[in-house]
Amino acid sequence: METHLADFIRGTPEGSEAEAILRACVHCGFCTATCPTYQLLGDELDGPRGRIYLIKQVLEGGTPTAITAQHLDRCPTCRACETTCPSGVRYARLADIGRAVVERQVRRPWRVHLRRAGIRWLFSHPWRLRLALTLLRPLRPLLPARFAEKLPVHRRIPPQPAVRHLRRVLTLAGCVQSVATPATNAALTRVLGRLDCGTEPVAGCCGALAWHTGAQFEGRARMRTLIERVEGALTAGTEGFVVTASGCAAMISGYPDIFRNEPTWAERAQHVAAALRDPSDIIGPATEHWTGIGAGRRIAFHAPCTLQHALHRAGAVEAILTRAGYLLMPVPDAHLCCGSAGSYSLTEPEIAEALRARKLAALASGAPTLIATANVGCELHLAARASVPVRHWLELLEPWPAPE
Q1: pLDDT tens sequence across 218-241
Q2: What is the C-alpha to C-alpha distance for residues 181 and 14, in angstroms, rounded to an integer?
Q3: Contacts of 107 (CB under 8 A, 6+ apart)
Q4: Distance CA 13, CA 90 (A)
Q5: Angle at the Cα of 153 from the Cα atoms of 150 and 155, rounded to 5 degrees
Q6: What is the pTM of this model?
Q7: In the chain, where are the structural domains located?
């Protein structure tokens, strides 16, 4: 694609990066076939090809409008288009650059700023979220249905025994997951314990919530804090940094791109990203420990977009669950987003609800007794309307039957 970038960005590191991405796009349109919002809305500007045009116009000096921002906001950044693209267009990175420019030039309504600030204020701080859930759970019957369904059910987590292991990994305690679904990391500790591998949690937020709600400065600050904490804990013999929320892992895997133009942080970001591990990386070679746990039980696995398209782990979890004895039901259009997409279900609720309805219908088509997934956002989003339990897949490797 021919480009003529405007003076304000031409020759800058971001401009050069964006120009290379734009020139890789041949506008073949293959991406529209796998874009969830294009499939739902049927608008060219709500597909990757149309959004690339919008970003190109802005970077070439065009004045973005509220409509420009709306079409970019409607993108859940699921990255299915990247998996489909035959030219290897790095759409998500281009979207980051384009959104930052649009955010500086478009005045948003105060209620949009308030909603986004509220999301960052609440969900990036575990103690605030914990307090909010403690106060709101008893009031669930009195709340409007659309709010009540978002409250995760409290599940008691048994205390973890203090055991020394020969092996060691770091884990991300996280923000939302540590409060809303603490069973996930607890399951990881028990599962890895059977492999004589201990876990050491690292507190902190990956920065995704701030990054994806227009506060990239705040997001970078959170990322730097996490980088420092992980670096400080990555001692000799540590086998990696295991992140159980695929959305957080996808964000961390992108740190080298985000900090590539900051000499002080580029190498450090690369170091942390290189240490990143998905739980399947460690568990996959040792599935004999869970043989037969599934006992032929019918389940459906929802592969989060971040796991499939950002981390490129498609099929890894499914293989583990199959070898553990579960019967995985086929899921039509498994590549499509469920509508969670981090804060997306809060900022674009109507589209998120439509995508969730489609995903739940696909997951239910094989009549599973349980839905497994690999990301806290997807788990909470699907569980609010699912007719069967929704759990993180690590919970299905417990040495007792998975919960009904």
Answers
A1: 999 999 999 999 999 998 889 999
A2: 37
A3: none
A4: 16
A5: 150
A6: 0.93
A7: 13-105, 285-397
